[in-house]
# Entry
Amino acid sequence: MRYPAAHKASTHRRIVDRASAALRARGLAGVGVADLMRGAGLTHGGFYAHFSSKDALVAEAVAAAGRQSAHNLQEVVKRAGPGREFEAIVDAYLAPSHRDQPERGCALAALGPELARESPASRRALSAQIEELVALLAEHMPPRPGLSRRRRGMAGLSCLVGALLLSRMAGDRGVSDEILAAARQHLIRTAG
# Structure
């Protein structure tokens, strides 16, 4: 039985969305194709009707995570008061809820170290997310002589991702919270 194109597209999107969350939560090694397909209510055999390989799925899932992260931060910017956009981004990114819910958060912090050694398609998806987030940060940083907004956006993103990654690695909740607070204070102080 052949399904309409809209059904296939909807199923494809459902698989990508589930894979995106699962990969961010459990990493590449923690996610198998059979489990993903079962979670989407499909058989393992149906995978190849949608993707040429697991690498292809991973690249799409990372791109979907990037779009979700950018959308979430753009919503944060919309709710921020005038002149508080950068601070609102920092607050949202370095929030304990972001740390504690990697499946809903930034793929750079959740998967970056793993994907840096993976397929070119996955690395391209991460690179696109880097560029989009650097641009978003740069757009909302106050001007400062001596360093372009883009370079400051790069430094800001590096601090955000690094702090989130370290806070997730910390074995002690207090140290984890301290990392988030220190990075937040540093970014807010140096941005203005």
User: Anything to note?
Assistant: The chain has one domain: 53-191. The mean pLDDT is 89. Residues 53-191 form a domain with the Tetracycline Repressor; domain 2 fold (CATH 1.10.357.10).
